[in-house]
Design brief:
Blueprint: H1 3-11, H2 14-22, H3 25-37, H4 44-49, H5 51-60, H6 70-79, H7 87-90, H8 94-102, H9 105-108, H10 116-119, H11 121-138, H12 140-151, H13 158-162, H14 165-175, H15 186-196, H16 205-221, H17 228-233, H18 247-259
Helix pairs in contact: 1-12, 2-11, 3-11, 5-11, 6-18, 11-12, 12-14, 12-16, 14-16
């Protein structure tokens, strides 16, 4: 099947696909544990100490490859999201910010884990993330399309695209923008993106759908991605010296500093 056909098959009946994911033994087991235990967590320290709960949440927010970064995430949780200078706001990573908002122990205290944002939304995110991962194993383009469908409506400026490697990959592929442009000045990148698209359009379901369908078509015409490999290697938070320190490098440094490892 083409990327577009596969994407439409899933997107047209998401509840059924999510239900299928939920019924898988491994997912059901992890979800059951999270739901049974998260409510007893009252502080950020308790949350971080329960590796199983922390890993579930990190995976739900698309950060399963950053489980090593407990030191950084501890700082994120300790600083909350209210202060503009809080780490979650300064990192400009939408996944970290969403994580900090959900587990806002600073702002909501011991009631944090009793709120729908944790009790229901985190589980829904976990299921969605698992679905995207499984689809990506068959066709990376479908994973990107589903991710874009889920997250693009939350973007408020071109900087939000630049801060998210997967969103940027979709946009660069769709618009035929070379991934090498990620080495340019960030403000210049944002200016160029603004000239090519209006992020407000992604809040319109019809315009969003058309953009994703265009991505799928370009993805297949490029032979399954074309410049995707380059786009996924580069980005606002690329680890190369010409781009400055990357988000992954920052996480590792923070973890060393705080844990002594």
């Amino acid at each position: 099947m083409s990327t577009l056909t596969s994407y439409r098959l899933v997107a047209s009946d998401l509840p059924r696909w999510q239900s299928l994911i939920n019924s898988k033994p491994a997912v059901a087991q992890q979800t059951k544990y999270f739901q049974a235990n998260i409510g007893a967590v009252k502080t950020a320290d308790e949350f971080l100490k329960n590796t199983r709960l922390f890993n579930f949440a990190m995976q739900a927010f698309g950060m399963g490859d950053r489980l090593y970064a407990k030191g950084l995430m501890k700082q994120v949780l300790q600083q909350g999201v209210t202060n503009p200078d809080a780490l979650a706001n300064k990192l400009n990573d939408p996944r970290i910010k969403a994580f900090a908002k959900a587990f806002d122990f600073v702002g909501k205290g011991a009631q944090t884990t009793q709120l729908p944002a944790v009790q229901k939304d985190v589980v829904a995110r976990y299921v969605e993330q698992t679905l995207e991962t499984e689809q990506g194993a068959q066709n990376p383009g479908v994973k990107l399309a589903l991710y874009f469908r889920q997250n693009a409506p939350n973007i408020t400026s071109p900087y939000g695209i630049l801060a998210d490697r997967d969103l940027l990959t979709v946009v660069q592929t769709t618009l035929g923008i070379s991934p090498m442009t990620s080495y340019q000045n960030v403000d210049l990148q944002a200016k160029n993106l603004k000239a090519r698209l209006d992020v407000a359009d992604f809040k319109d379901p019809q315009k969003l759908a058309k953009f994703i369908e265009r991505f799928c078509a370009v993805y297949d015409s490029n032979g399954g991605g074309g410049n995707l490999a380059g786009a996924q290697t580069l980005g606002l938070f690329d680890n190369s010296s010409s781009m400055g320190i990357g988000i992954d490098a920052l996480m590792k440094l923070q973890n060393v500093k705080l844990t002594g490892r």
